[in-house]
Design brief:
Number of strands: 2
Largest sheet: 2 strands, antiparallel
Number of helices: 11
Order of helices and strands: HHHHEEHHHHHHH
Radius of gyration: 19 Å
Strand order of the largest sheet: 1-2
Structural class: mainly alpha
Shape: globular
Distance between the termini: 36 Å
Amino acid sequence: MQSFIAALLNSLDIAMLLFVIAVGLNIIFGVLNVINFAHGGLYMLGAYFTYMLVGRLGLPFWPALLLAPLAVAAVAVVLERLVLRRVYDRHVTDSLLLTFALLLIIDESVRMIWGSGIHVVRPPDLLRGNVSFLGVNYPVYSLFVILMGAAMLLALWALFTRTRLGRIVRAAAIDRDMAQTVGINVPLVITGVFAFGAWMAAVGGVIAAPMRAIDPGMGDKIIIESFIVVVIGGLGSFPGTLLGALVLGFIHGFGGRYLPEINLVLPYIGMALVLLWRPQGLMGRGAAA
């Protein structure tokens, strides 16, 4: 039983981190219709900015949790205004290729600035050590990740369903021309959504920094996992992102404990099965209500 509970907690830990990262990717697709490969690079920048603020400048973790995502969001605004908005009217494959090029540029820029070595960020004193939870000795920081992901989930739900800003974003996603007609500044909304998605990726990077090695390849790996999440859940579906993250989290959490020999291929098997059974994803557009 304790082994099952440990696998369950590990699954939730992985799922909540993936949700925080992948939901930004899905929000960008839902509003901009852009498949943003650079999302992984923005996640990586969040982790590296955290390392710079905490490891180099000596700031506590909590200010870094605020400052690093804001810095990445500012980078995203520059990228959207100077580069990305030029391909909105083209086929989606053009944005895919462009953002993949941006990911490669970010990767090489990180190598030039911080080198190719591995960096580590220590968790804050408040979140170090272990705690007994349901008979399992579990890291306090991992419980923080689970609670942080749940808090982000509730905050996003409230933002998009209970606020005027959320209604504006949904209107721009459904019909840009009509939104422009009723007085919504659609270009500003698009820039804000891209920056917000980048902010979400960077929050994931900050959270991941004390629990994962920081290296120039971390963005490439996370973008693959994020795409698996949105493919399983459905492109453009907010609830689907949560479901996809939970599915992939459980695959990693239970697969790593009970099927370690094939754990690396289980996510791809799961994605293939979903694509064969429901190509639009479990809760994607066109799925049955």
